[in-house]
Amino acid sequence: MSNTPVIGVLALQGDVREHLIALAAADAVARPVRRPEELAEVDGLVIPGGESTTISKLAVLFGLMEPLRTRVRSGLPVYGTCAGLIMLADKILDPRSGQETIGGIDMIVRRNAFGRQNESFEAAVDVTGVEGDPVEGVFIRAPWVESVGAETEVLAEHEGHIVAVRQGNALATSFHPELTGDHRLHAMFVDMVRANKVAESL
Questions:
Q1: pLDDT digit string (tens) for 128-149?
Q2: How far is it, in rounded angstroms, from Cα 19 to Cα 100?
Q3: From the candidates 18, 19, 158, 178, which is the catalytic residue?
Q4: Most buried in the list 17, 100, 140, 168, measured by CB within 10 Å?
Q5: Helix %, strand %, coil % of the chain (to 5)
């Protein structure tokens, strides 16, 4: 049981419950994280979709922004979906006033790049590292990645735009895999967390 990773879901806003279910299905112990002391107890963290400006402001309000930055900088495995991808970007092309990010992935992102709420769509996405059929991506007011740095690996594109990336222990997708019942991306992240636990114990 000791190798079962404990993975938190940042529970400030967004589809927290769906991520908790997907992580549990991928053999992790999943729990919500709202306070710095809860963040300190997890082996990995998912930052869900929602509204990136709201998540940013709530993270500051709850005293989580600096602890998040510190842990991500020190190598905490982290996975951001949609707004979570924006939160992990080192730079936002068109930030709202006062919007902050955690950072951790050398990329520039564009908010709401695929259109507004009524232009949401689903698409099959081939993701490097995910075996079998393409992942069904749910894009809801989704961002895309404008550009990446040399250390950032592009895992997927849709219509010529980058929609999945990884840099070290940080993973991010423009779309919502937690809404489809396909838990392969969560399983991939759980494997990343497990590998990091092993590396830290050596």
A1: 999 999 999 999 999 999 999 9
A2: 23
A3: 178
A4: 140
A5: 30, 30, 40
Q: Which of 9, 22, 6 is nearest to 138 (CA)?
A: 22
Element spanning 154, H or E: strand 153-158
Is 122 annotated in the active site? Answer: no
Q: Give the integer Cα–Cα distance in Å for 126 and 164.
A: 10
Q: Residue ranges of the chain with pLDDT lower than 70?
A: 1-2
Residue with token string 């730079």: 91
Q: Which of 82, 158, 183, 186 is catalytic?
A: 82
Q: Residue 189 is encoded by which pair of tokens?
A: 């992240």
User: H-helix or E-strand containing 123?
Assistant: strand 121-125
- Among candidate residues 56, 29, 37, 82, the one with its CA nearest the CA of residue 193: 29
Other beta carbons less than 10 A from residue 74's beta carbon: 8
Task: Considering the candidates 19, 176, 183, 186, report the single residue annotated as catalytic.
Answer: 176
Could you count the other beta carbons within 10 Å of the beta carbon of residue 194?
19
**19 is known as an active-site residue:** no
pLDDT score recorded for residue 2: 59
Instruction: Please confirm, yes or no, whether 41 is among the known catalytic residues.
Output: no
